[in-house]
Amino acid sequence: MRLVGVTRHYAADRPILKDLNLVLQRGERVALQGESGVGKSTLLNLIAGLDVPDAGTIEVAGIRIDALSATARVRYRRETLGFVFQAFHLLPHLTALQNAMVPLMLAGMGELIAHKQALTLLDELGIADRAEARPGELSGGEQQRVALARALVHRPALVLADEPTGNLDPATAHLALDLLFAQCARHGTTMLMVTHSPETAALADRRLVLTERGLTAAV
């Protein structure tokens, strides 16, 4: 992933991000920290194609995100990205397995193949025995594992994680992060993770801090 000269304004004279440069290597796991209001969520939205920069270029897996049409950005999110959030955002009327299958079904994969692929990943995450349970029947840690499966099932090139364990107790959070990192390592998936937790950030390959002056390496 490569960002060059990325700038985004709230108003014409008020940039939230200014001339930002960032390179992530394939398979690299990077933690992003910074105070509230410095633009961390804006940065994730730009990389996800949910917003477009006022200047600069964004490239993920060889795709120029800033140059895509709105329709192409939707396809890019479905095929290239995985998302992990503090809130699990599971669909309450679907089972754990069906939630994990959603990205594959949206991509047009046949139901039988999607079923097998999602169940295999649930098994790798240690939750295959809860495949038929609905989110309301799962613990917080189990819901997070389902959310991880949904984010990773289509083997995205890039995972964007926004406070991915913020709703979990420390022990469960550590387990969820171990599972997330292991799956990314297995498939060479790049990850950019926003976190306020120094302990969580310390698990990444590299730590960056976003301030009003731009990105710097964490000390």
CATH class: Alpha Beta
What is the CATH H-level superfamily? P-loop containing nucleotide triphosphate hydrolases
Residue share in helix = 25-40%
Could you tell me the number of beta strands?
Answer: 10
Fold-level CATH name: Rossmann fold
End-to-end C-alpha gap: 23 Å
CATH architectural category: 3-Layer(aba) Sandwich
Oligomer: single chain
**Helix-and-strand structural type:** alpha/beta
The major sheet is characterized as:
6 strands, mixed
Shape: globular
List low-confidence stretches.
none
Count of helices?
Answer: 7
Question: Features of this protein?
Answer:
single chain, 219 residues, alpha/beta, Rossmann fold, 6-stranded mixed β-sheet, 4-stranded antiparallel β-sheet
Short description:
With 219 residues, the chain is of the alpha/beta class.
General description of the model:
This protein is an alpha/beta fold. It has one domain (2-217): Rossmann fold. It contains 7 helices and 10 strands. A 6-stranded mixed sheet has the order 6-7-8-3-9-10. Strands 2-1-4-5 form a 4-stranded antiparallel sheet, with helices on one face. A hairpin with a 2-residue loop joins strand 9 (206-211) and strand 10. Helix 3 (96-106) crosses helix 4, helix 3 (96-106) runs parallel beside helix 5 (140-152) and helix 5 runs parallel beside helix 6. The longest helix has 18 residues, at 170-187.
